[in-house]
Every structure is written in structure tokens, then in C-alpha cells.
Design brief:
InterPro entries: GlcNAc_PI_deacetylase-related (IPR003737), LmbE-like_dom_sf (IPR024078). It holds the Pfam family PIG-L. It comes from Nocardia mangyaensis. One of its GO terms (molecular function) is hydrolase activity, acting on carbon-nitrogen (but not peptide) bonds, in linear amides. This is GlcNAc-PI de-N-acetylase. With 237 residues, this protein is α/β, with parallel strands linked by helices. The chain has one domain: Rossmann fold, CATH 3.40.50. The protein is 36% helix and 19% strand. The protein is built from 7 helices and 10 strands. The strands form 2 sheets. The protein has an 8-stranded mixed β-sheet with strand order 1-9-10-8-5-2-3-4, with helices on both faces. Helix 1 (26-34) links the parallel strand 2 (10-15) and strand 3. Helix 2 (56-73) packs antiparallel against helix 5, helix 3 crosses helix 4 (128-143) and helix 5 (181-189) packs across helix 7.
Length: 237
């Protein structure tokens, strides 16, 4: 198991919903901001359809506030929302264009994505939003460096990230997050209202502890008691 490259300064995390980052990558983000790296978050939706019994007009602003608070816990101060419709994200050219524009604005060397495969594990289906965002983002990484694919973005200079690191069931690289578990815990705990509704039978603190333990467990072949694993893709030298 190899170490994720860390000879970069700017990173962009692209996900579909508030809390997606905190369910896997937050501890790694805390490690990287602790190294002085500049990490930004890009949320394709505001998660407005994510709280049962709460109307989207109320849930969207609440989840936005929770996401910004969670980001702050791991040293991230730039959080952008694209406002595509939660639960109805469409994979394709419109989303690719919006993501390519964001990549050109933020100019990341490393892009972090959430699993966009069909499943998380045998019998556990991934959400349509996760699939659409991840697949479009992988295309947008290439689009962002090509001046001719979206000529309407001519005011933004082309930019090509070097890597994409995907949190998911396939792990090729990892980072040691042993020193950042508390930050990851606090980042997920910031989504308190969402977690209360997600599983009302289990206290938020117990949910958070379970998620962090699962996300930061040891990875086979990697010498750390607590690690976050990624599938790494290389795009440029």
C-alpha cells in the first residue's frame, strides 16, 4: 500500500451533498490542512432533500450551515455550493461544464472525490447523485484543461489537476490520520440535525464514533493504526 502523494499545495474536494466529505475524507483533509495545504470544498447540492419531515426550503440552508461548520473543524474555509437539485443531479454536459469551471477557478493539483461506482459493497447500492457527480467530475478534470470543449468558459484559464483521489471500496493508496481523529469527529458531529433524523434511535455521538472508526481503520499493507484509503488516478506529470 503506497502513500498518497503529498507534494502539492492546492486541493479541491468535490461531492454531491453536505456530510459526504465527513463520511470518509475529513480526517485526511485535516492532515493536509495541518501541513499548510489550501483545501476547498465544492458541493453540487445543498442537500435540501436530505432531512425527512423538513421541507427543502428549510433543510437546504440548515445543511449549508452545518457543512460550513464541519469544514471549519478540519481547517477548510472555502465552501462553494453549485445548487443542482438534491436527489435529481443529472450526469452530463451541464454538470461537467459547472465542475470544469470550478476546477479552473480553484486550480487544484489534487481533486478528492467520493465513490461513484454502482455499489459500496455487494448488495449495497450507491446513490444516483454520488454516481453522477463522481463520473462527471472525472470527465471535468480533463475538460478543465482543454480550451475548446467549453468555449463559454474562455474567461477562465485552462487548468489540469495532477491527481484524483477517490474515497471508496477500492484502495490503492492511503494516508496516516492517527493525529486527526478528533478533528474528523468534530467535523461529522457538526451535521447534528441531519444525523438526528438519519437515525433517531442512535445518539449522534454514537453514530459519529462508529463512522469515524470505520473510515479511519487500518488499511492492509499500510503501516498506520488509523488511515484513510483512496483509489489514486494520475492525470498529469
Amino acid at each position: 500500500m503506497e502513500q498518497v502523494p503529498e507534494n502539492w499545495q492546492r486541493g479541491l474536494v468535490i461531492v454531491a451533498h453536505p456530510d459526504d466529505i465527513e463520511y470518509g475524507a475529513a480526517a485526511a483533509v485535516a492532515r493536509w490542512t495541518g501541513q499548510g495545504k489550501d483545501i476547498s470544498y465544492l458541493l453540487v447540492t445543498r442537500g435540501e432533500a436530505g432531512i425527512a419531515g423538513m421541507a427543502p426550503a428549510q433543510a437546504g440552508p440548515l445543511r449549508e450551515v452545518e457543512q460550513i461548520a464541519g469544514a471549519r473543524e478540519v481547517g477548510v474555509h472555502t465552501v462553494e455550493f453549485l445548487e443542482h437539485p438534491d436527489g435529481r443531479i443529472e450526469e452530463g454536459l451541464v454538470l461537467r461544464r459547472d465542475l470544469a469551471a470550478a476546477i479552473r477557478r480553484h486550480r487544484p493539483e489534487m481533486v478528492v472525490l467520493l465513490n461513484f461506482g454502482d455499489t459500496w459493497a455487494p448488495g449495497l447500492v450507491n446513490s444516483a447523485d454520488h454516481r453522477a457527480v463522481g463520473r462527471s467530475a472525472m470527465d471535468a478534470i480533463s475538460d478543465a484543461g482543454n480550451e475548446w470543449i467549453f468555449p463559454e468558459l474562455a474567461d477562465l484559464a485552462p487548468w489540469s489537476p495532477r491527481w484524483a483521489a477517490v474515497v471508496g471500496p477500492v484502495v490503492t493508496h492511503a494516508v496516516d490520520v492517527s493525529a486527526h481523529l478528533e478533528q474528523a469527529h468534530d467535523s461529522l458531529a457538526a451535521h447534528r440535525r441531519y444525523l438526528q433524523v438519519l437515525n433517531p434511535a442512535i445518539p449522534v455521538e454514537e453514530q459519529v464514533q462508529e463512522v469515524i472508526a470505520m473510515a479511519t481503520g487500518p488499511k492492509e499493507g499500510f503501516p498506520a493504526a488509523h488511515a484513510v484509503g483512496f483509489e489514486l488516478f494520475t492525470f498529469a506529470g
